[in-house]
Amino acid sequence: MANREKNKKTLLELAKLSQNCCCADCGATDPDWASCTLGIFVCLNCSGTHRNLPSVSRIKSIRLDFWDDELVQFMKSNGNRAAKNFYEKFVPVFYYQPQPDDYVYEGMLWKKGKDNGQFLERKFVLSVHDFTLKYYKEDESKGPKATISVKDLNATFQPEKIGHAHGLQITYCVDNHTRNLFVYHKNGQEIVNWFNAIRAIRLAYLKTAFPTASNEELIPWITRNYLKEGYMEKTGPLQREPFKKRWFILDSLDRKLLYFKTQLDAIELGVVFIGPENHGYSVRECVPKGTRGNKWKCGVIVETPDRQFVFMCEQERDQREWVEALKTIISKPMMPQDYTSKIITPLNQMC
């Protein structure tokens, strides 16, 4: 215990030195975090960026985490000035240096818990210098609960689904799965501001990723509403398994049909890539023989090169709408980015 306190005191003293008293990345004063693999001191916000680079940078709190003697000695031998002289030696002078206030938007939102229906107030921060959305629990000193890249970020107004007039669904990808955040704000203008801030940072990211594309080409990719959502019943790959009621989302931009246990689930249970007709994809209305356990009788069959999927709708109107929505995607030719989406889509995980 005495050695732990001694190392903590040493780290705090190192962080006060002139070469370490500002964040190595953005220059914010009094950094409380450090990369024990790079030997640098960083602020709370920049520590979230380093957590996205686990193979390069391992982040620890200089106040809360345990530091052994070897790591403390490493920090002594390095520090921000030495690291900058080494890692930034060949960085062009015109490269922009991130600043502490490089944030598009920050504030409090009520967020639904991942495993329950309780909404709790959380701080959210949009950062333009690293293109991330972070949110924090009550104790911000522990760092962000999640750091989300805006690369695959989407936002849609969902007042009915969330049960609040100012509800917003934020969707992103993590480990090849779709993750949902359901949030709201008591003030309608504030949730509109958040929606526009997300669109602004998405456009900034797209202009960086595709510098030659025009605004007209990028606008459809900023955010989008889903082509169709709703409940259907589904069976397993053998088509003899009992049907289960699931919430489906059809994303026309990514050519994906995703399903969740309920409409407020945090993570999808399965996904089907919807390719074009000339690649062996089709959809039709049908009620196949031998099905069991289905309460609904209006069938939809989706054919893919790998498998036939059978779904049941409650009403004929739902059946027609799903078939037409799926046909809209199937009728579109594949774009270059669609092949990447197809590769990472777990086609046979829907069961």
Automatic annotation (TrEMBL):
InterPro entries the record matches: Arf-GAP_dual-PH_domain (IPR052589), ARFGAP/RecO (IPR037278), ArfGAP_dom (IPR001164), ArfGAP_dom_sf (IPR038508), PH-like_dom_sf (IPR011993), PH1_ADAP (IPR037849), PH2_ADAP (IPR037851), PH_domain (IPR001849)
Segments traversing the membrane: none
Pfam families: ArfGap, PH
Record's subcellular location: Cytoplasm
Main location as per UniProt: cytoplasm
Superkingdom per UniProt: Eukaryota
Cellular component terms per the entry's GO annotation: cytoplasm; plasma membrane
Keywords (A to Z) from UniProt: Cytoplasm, GTPase activation, Metal-binding, Repeat, Zinc, Zinc-finger
Annotated ranges, domain Arf-GAP: 8-88
Record GO terms (molecular function): GTPase activator activity; phosphatidylinositol bisphosphate binding; phosphatidylinositol-3,4,5-trisphosphate binding; zinc ion binding
Family matches, as CDD domains: PH1_ADAP, PH2_ADAP
Gene3D superfamilies: Arf GTPase activating protein, Pleckstrin-homology domain (PH domain)/Phosphotyrosine-binding domain (PTB)
PANTHER family assigned to the protein according to its UniProt record, in alphabetical order: ARF-GAP WITH DUAL PH DOMAIN-CONTAINING PROTEIN 1-LIKE PROTEIN (PTHR46021), ARF-GAP WITH DUAL PH DOMAIN-CONTAINING PROTEIN 2 (PTHR46021:SF6)
UniProt name for this protein: ArfGAP with dual PH domains 2
Gene source species: Cyprinus carpio (Common carp)
Source species taxonomy: Eukaryota, Metazoa, Chordata, Craniata, Vertebrata
